[in-house]
Amino acid sequence: MKQRQFFLRVLFVLAGVMVAAPAWASPFATEVVSATGTFGPGSLYSDPSAALGKPTTWIKGSDVGGKNMACSMVYPSWNTDPEGNKLITTIGAQAQITVTFDHNITNDPLNPYGIDFIVFGNDLYWGTGMVGPTTNMETYYVASGTGWSDPGIVSVAQYLEGPWYTYSTGPYFDTTTYPTQAFAWDRENDAWGAELDWTKPVNPALNPTEDFVGLSVADVIDLYAGSAGGTGYDLAASGFEWIRYIKVESSSSTKLAEIDGFADVAPVPVPGAVLLLGSGLFRLLGQRRRK
Fold this sequence. Notes:
18% of the residues lie in helices and 27% in strands. The strands form 6 sheets. Strands 1-5-14-9-10 form a 5-stranded antiparallel beta sheet, with no helix packed on it. The protein has helices at residues 2-20, 208-211, 217-224, 270-290, and strands at 31-36, 58-61, 67-70, 89-90, 96-106, 117-120, 124-127, 142-148, 152-157, 164-166, 183-186, 191-195, 231-233, 242-250, 258-259, 261-264.
């Protein structure tokens, strides 16, 4: 009887955890709730929904004979993915895109570097020559720590009707701070390796124009320390303890920012947590039975 009561308590605990936690929350933006103004040019870059989900990993490089190219700090997101899906949206002057998540993004000082969410554009670093499918990133160098940049402005809110906080003095996304880097570099096989972490920011203390100059792309990837890049934002500046909406726009009529995606720095791994808790409790149950 005691064992049965203990087993029931275990089930109640597991059920409580599953109900209380936001099951299957995505770390990426899940819905465009507002898109006003002009996007493009052309239909390839005019769909705001291209900013949803995971940022770009692979690109169909029409400039390299239609071969697949990894999205990297020296070959940014453009054109389509290998299946023909659109990848980025160009935000016209006076245009804006507002997205939402399926959970709240919280201001958590325990997040890496205090950063709470990341915005991805299609900026890049200038490198030493052309990039192709077989370019060795150990011998391809970042020329100056600068490159292509179209600064975009970010605003955040808890509710769609506001109030809104705008990062009017930066940081700006789609700049050459930390361009997107989808994969690690496998030095042993001279090839792209494992996919990097979209939810981990780059250390904001790194200064590209000082710390990256003269380094190979592989070296800079190492300095990313497992991050997939992007521009990080700390909610502390906004005064909000949490947000649900992010709005992006171009900073000027001549510098039209591209948006590739958004990520919450601290997604909650609910299924894994439940399994770990369950395995621990069932091990405890087994120990009680043995006793």
